[in-house]
Amino acid sequence: MNWDDESAYATPPAGDRLVGTTADGEDQAVEAALRPKDLGEFIGQERVREQLDLVLKAARARGATADHVLLSGAPGLGKTTLSMIIAAEMGAPIRITSGPAIQHAGDLAAILSSLTEGEVLFLDEIHRMSRPAEEMLYMAMEDFRVDVIVGKGPGATAIPLELPPFTLVGATTRAGLLPPPLRDRFGFTGHMEFYAPAELQRVVHRSARLLDVEIDEKGAAEIAGRSRGTPRIANRLLRRVRDYAQVKADGVITQEIAAQALQVYEVDGRGLDRLDRAVLTALLKLFGGGPVGLSTLAVAVGEERETVEEVAEPFLVREGLLARTPRGRVATPAAWSHLGLVPPQQGGGRAGAGGSDQHGLFGE
Ligand SMILES: Nc1ncnc2c1ncn2[C@@H]1O[C@H](COP(=O)(O)OP(=O)(O)OP(=O)(O)O)[C@@H](O)[C@H]1O
Ligand SMILES: [Mg+2]
């Protein structure tokens, strides 16, 4: 992959995926209302929360500005939320910008020079910042100083500019892409993990309360189990299940209602959607579980290679349903059982439904 190409960073087109990781318009509107406002309200991520709590408490006790914080983790796990919490906990204002928005060092200089003392600067997608801006940031982070270049060519001069102490909060979905000198300048790095089902259940409950939706324990658990470890997806599924409950029932979300609704939206018990299942089904039924090449698999499901590789596969791999091997894509035993099929070597046939009919179902 060519990392200089802007499009290489973008999430590939995946349509309006209900289990997609990036925030769509509706998400953005609702998310602001659903964001926890302080560390106490922030669910899960025990380690990051505890460590961050210490960092912030210590800074407050010293009456100092908190150290720079880097938050890394998959989309929708709460990086933006946590950055706002950091500002709130420090009682500081927050300025929000992103790597792609800073193309020239001058853009960054303008932002940095207008910061007030103790302000939190949130730099989302920090791995997408331009090189010159990045170098300016090194100096700003370390010495609270930037050199502003005035003029062009041989007559250009660098004017040093003192900055007030500030806290940089950087967020990235790809910590591996950050140059080491940048990574090293953060005093604290928090790695956000995927959430456990019990934590997501609490997220669903909390959001339901804020959205004024009635839901019971098992209903929340049903949604949580299909949310792929991601609060953003949990909140989105909750809204769709709420719609279903309003139209098809009395508005109350029970396990039965949640399961019915998510069947309508084609999100299965493990959070796989139609695309995921199509990939897995092709791998099992057409190629006997693999190994099969990515291109062949993509043609079989009528999708682009990139879509299969970047949209469907990461979750399938994470769930232990599919493995990428040097010889091609291979299904794991868990994939066979998830789709209720029997692998050929055990079943004697190519595939059989639920193991009950191992012969002839798919014509040998
Ligand atoms: N720990 C949490 N407790 C409750 N809700 C959460 C938590 N983490 C995230 N959320 C919810 O999930 C939504 C998405 O979180 P957020 O926008 O912070 O994710 P992100 O990591 O910044 O994603 P991206 O990488 O796409 O920018 C928010 O609306 C927030 O309400
Ligand atoms: Mg974010």
Automatic annotation (TrEMBL):
ATP binds at L34, R35, G76, K79, T80, T81, E142, D143, F144, R185, Y195, R232. Keywords: ATP-binding, Cytoplasm, DNA damage, DNA recombination, DNA repair, DNA-binding, Helicase, Hydrolase, Nucleotide-binding. SUPFAM superfamilies: P-loop containing nucleoside triphosphate hydrolases (SSF52540), Winged helix' DNA-binding domain (SSF46785). Residues 1-20, 341-364 are annotated as: Disordered. Residues 15-195 are annotated as: Large ATPase domain (RuvB-L). InterPro entries: AAA+_ATPase (IPR003593), AAA_lid_4 (IPR041445), DNA_helicase_Holl-junc_RuvB (IPR004605), P-loop_NTPase (IPR027417), RuvB-like_N (IPR008824), RuvB_wg_C (IPR008823), WH-like_DNA-bd_sf (IPR036388), WH_DNA-bd_sf (IPR036390). It is found in: Cytoplasm. Transmembrane segments: none annotated. Mg(2+) binds at T80. It catalyses: ATP + H2O = ADP + phosphate + H(+). It comes from the Bacteria. Its EC number is 3.6.4.-. Residues 65-198 form the AAA+ ATPase domain. Residues 346-364 have a biased composition (Gly residues). Gene3D superfamilies: 1.10.8.60, P-loop containing nucleotide triphosphate hydrolases, Winged helix-like DNA-binding domain superfamily/Winged helix DNA-binding domain. Pfam families: AAA_lid_4, RuvB_N, WHD_RuvB. The keyword Hydrolase applies. Its main location: cytoplasm. One of its GO terms (molecular function) is hydrolase activity. One of its GO terms (biological process) is DNA recombination. Homohexamer. Forms an RuvA(8)-RuvB(12)-Holliday junction (HJ) complex. HJ DNA is sandwiched between 2 RuvA tetramers; dsDNA enters through RuvA and exits via RuvB. An RuvB hexamer assembles on each DNA strand where it exits the tetramer. Each RuvB hexamer is contacted by two RuvA subunits (via domain III) on 2 adjacent RuvB subunits; this complex drives branch migration. In the full resolvosome a probable DNA-RuvA(4)-RuvB(12)-RuvC(2) complex forms which resolves the HJ. NCBIfam families: PRK00080.1, ruvB. Belongs to the RuvB family. Has 3 domains, the large (RuvB-L) and small ATPase (RuvB-S) domains and the C-terminal head (RuvB-H) domain. The head domain binds DNA, while the ATPase domains jointly bind ATP, ADP or are empty depending on the state of the subunit in the translocation cycle. During a single DNA translocation step the structure of each domain remains the same, but their relative positions change. This is Holliday junction branch migration complex subunit RuvB. It comes from Streptomyces cinnamoneus. The gene is ruvB.
